[in-house]
Design brief:
Blueprint: E1 2-5, E2 10-14, E3 19-23, E4 27-31, E5 42-45, E6 48-49, H1 50-65
């Protein structure tokens, strides 16, 4: 298992949200999940998978900008 301590401001691009997210004090790990094939690796950022990390950061971004996602808007 590799553990990388990121001490500088890093921009990570998420194709799902088509934007970059900034982190300045994250811990990233590359490890092999116990439930998959032996040649599969998984990126863990701050203790969660990269997909969930990006979704959390996107939610924080929306809350910070007070933007309501389209699926939560009420129909007129």
């Amino acid at each position: 298992m590799w553990i990388v301590h990121i001490r500088t401001i890093i921009l990570l691009y998420c194709p799902e949200h088509r934007r970059k997210f900034e982190t300045d004090r994250s811990v990233a790990e590359i490890k092999q999940p116990a439930t998959t094939e032996k040649n599969w690796l998984e990126l863990i950022i701050d203790g969660v998978t990269d997909t969930n990390w990006f979704r959390l950061k996107h939610k924080e971004f929306l809350e910070e900008k007070t933007i309501i996602p389209p699926f939560q808007k009420k129909a007129k």
